[in-house]
Amino acid sequence: MSNHVDLQVSKPKLWGSCRLSIAFCVFLAAIQMAMLRDNLGIALLCMSKPVGNLTCELNEATMPTLPWIDRKQNCEFEWDSATRGRILGSFLYGYVLTTMVGGIISNSYGAKLPFMVAGYGNVIIHLLCPLAAQVHTELFFACRLVQGMFAGLMAGPFFQLFSAWMSEDEASILLSFAFSGYSFGTIMIYPMSGALCNSNIHGYGGWSLIFYVPATISILFILYWHLYLYDVPDNHPKISPEEYEYLLQNVGISAEPPVIPWLSIFTSLPFIAYVMCYSAFLWNIFTMMNNMPMFMQTMLSIPTNESGYLYCIPFILMFLTRNFNATTYPIIRNCTGLSNTVCRKLYCCFGCIMVITSLLSIIFEENVTKWHVVAAISINLALGDFAYSGGFFPTLLDLAPNYAGLLSGVSTFIAFVVACPATYVNSIIIKQNTKDEWNTVLWIIIILFTFIMFFYLIFGSAKLQLWSVAKLEVPERGPLRSTIYNASRNMSTIRPSHLF
């Protein structure tokens, strides 16, 4: 006997809704992640002594520290390229270790618990980084590693939250808006870091402010999460009856199988295609964030402050593209009449081609200019994002909404294991900062994207996977996201939110 409610409820407005406030929480979390992760690329250039073609802006400003620790000014850390590459990768190494942990916790106890722990831990450890760097290089490395471990707890909760708060017709716009926080955070941190590197306020400032300022801003985000972040609609004290009933009918959280189908998960070709695309995308984005600023300094002799401002241009365009995809994807799909799977594949292929084309333009141009590089990176990140926000990334909620948090943790863990070595591998390849060495770095990305483009075209999917649900009696009319399985939305007893 079906317990599905036949009464159709009109969609409550999105503006001012609890659905939007949840998406905004994830947006702020993505900003925090980007700021506290990506600032290190500029910070290391500001902290390290010039090596080879590197430049560093001298600044006599310092920040107060413990009495027995020597203060370090700009350009005083003796770190070679390999050391900088290892420090850059430390955050990602830690991130890998806890992505699955965050997914498992959010799947069992709700998303808010790991979400808040991650937010607090990320900020606290980031505030300790300047002190650690002054004490010893390895302590600085350890701090970034632990910081990455806290940040990794957020990977699973992101999707677990959305699995309970998004209907199919709002998935694209809310997901794209929320995850555009990554590019928005990068837009903020690159010019901010360049300016803070040169700051001198009554003798105080310099490289350490690149850590203190974004961490202080992030504290405001945590306060917002305390007020507006809830695991499921059942627990939200301010949700309207209309919005609750809308989510009750249109969010397809089906009954889970009694045992997590691990074998089916790891042999699912659509899920494997998702993970491969995610891995290639991260390899590309890590290279663009961590290594390409060095390219602009070493190959084009662009100073740190100018590099910070120039490098935010691609991320501004990436932010706009991500939100453009959010608003236009449903329109394009409805107008063309194509299935969700076909549309996702087309977006993915277009984005991959843009990434490949942009990098080829740098490889085959002998005398690249700064505007050529900025244009190429802009195409890479902005138009390449069609493969991400319009292509494979949102499909995790379509493949297995029941296990969104768990699979997000699993896929993020695997993708980061594959992509984390990117920064270090690139630093090994780039020894003399020659054009041929940089071309090798770019050829690796081209080969990866060529492979995943064809693999996703063949095996990618945006259809509900049967292994992710328990087969129940077939209802006459099912929810939008669960057409042949019963839905259960009364999750307040297993998704506690009173812990924070």
Task: Provide tags for this entry.
disordered N terminus, disordered C terminus, two-stranded antiparallel sheet, 18 helices, 500 residues, mainly alpha, globular
Helix percent reads 55-70%
Averaging pLDDT over every residue, what do you get? 81
Tally of DSSP helical segments: 18
What is the number of beta strands? 2
Gyration radius (Cα, Å) is 23 Å
Shape: globular
- Numbering strands along the chain, what is their spatial order in the largest sheet? 1-2
Main sheet summary: 2 strands, antiparallel
Structure classification: mainly alpha
Report strand %. under 5%
What's the SSE pattern?
HHHHHHEEHHHHHHHHHHHH
Low-confidence stretches at least 5 residues in length (pLDDT < 50)?
1-7, 472-500
Termini gap? 38 Å
Structure description:
The chain is an all-alpha fold and 500 residues long. It is built from 18 helices and two strands. The protein has helices at residues 18-47, 81-109, 112-135, 137-152, 155-165, 168-197, 209-228, 241-250, 262-266, 269-298, 304-336, 340-363, 370-383, 385-392, 396-399, 404-419, 421-429, 435-459; strands spanning 200-201, 204-205. It has a two-stranded antiparallel sheet with strand order 1-2. Helix 1 (18-47) runs antiparallel to helix 5 (155-165) and helix 1 (18-47) runs parallel beside helix 6. The longest helix is centred in the middle third of the chain and has 33 residues, at 304-336. The protein starts with 17 loop residues before the first helix and ends in a 41-residue tail after the last helix.
